[in-house]
Design brief:
single chain, alpha+beta, Helix Hairpins, 2 domains, 6 helices, 6 strands, 35% helix
């Protein structure tokens, strides 16, 4: 039994963890009277420790940086717009002194499609456009101000079209 790959059907770490828990009860020497139970349990632990998921692998820092850069580049044709990453949301708002910049570029904003995000929507309460992650479902309406949300989740702000269509980090 030591040659059996217990985790061959698992594609995520969570699936492997569930299989491991179930097999721990079956193979642990305290629960199994088989003379090979100890060796089988040790083999199970080795296989679990060496398991690498085929899905959901964490991205390397370089991949994450490149993905962020490519996301920001989608907005470089917008003028007088601030791009703020708050938690897993992306918010677009008028620069200070540029009232109506996002309204004037509404159609351009709607054309920007980002992988992993829903289509942009306008928040009338906050007077900003936002992209929410795919699969996000709003459970309740937040009573927090935008600044309170930024403090809770952390944020980074960039200026679109700052200098000759270059993105500039503000905060």
């Amino acid at each position: 039994m030591t040659n059996v790959k217990h985790f061959s059907e698992c594609s995520t770490q969570d699936e492997a963890k569930n299989v491991f828990k179930k097999l721990c009860f079956a193979l642990h020497p305290d629960h199994n009277d088989s003379p090979t139970a100890g060796a089988e349990f040790i083999e199970l632990k080795k296989q679990y420790d060496s398991f690498t998921p085929s899905e959901g692998r964490e991205r390397t820092e370089a991949d994450a940086s490149e993905a962020l850069y490519n996301t920001i580049r989608q907005f470089e044709n917008l003028q007088n717009v601030l791009i703020t990453f708050v938690g897993s949301f992306i918010w677009l708002e008028d620069e200070e002194g540029s009232a109506g910049a996002t309204k004037a570029q509404k159609e351009e904003i709607k054309k920007i499609i980002l992988d992993g995000f829903n289509s942009p929507r306008f928040s009338g309460k906050r007077l900003k456009w936002f992209y929410s992650p795919v699969g996000y479902k709003q459970k309740f309406k937040s009573k927090k101000s935008f600044d309170e949300i930024r403090k809770t989740w952390g944020s980074k702000t960039f200026e679109a079209g700052a200098t000759k269509n270059k993105i500039k980090q503000l905060a």
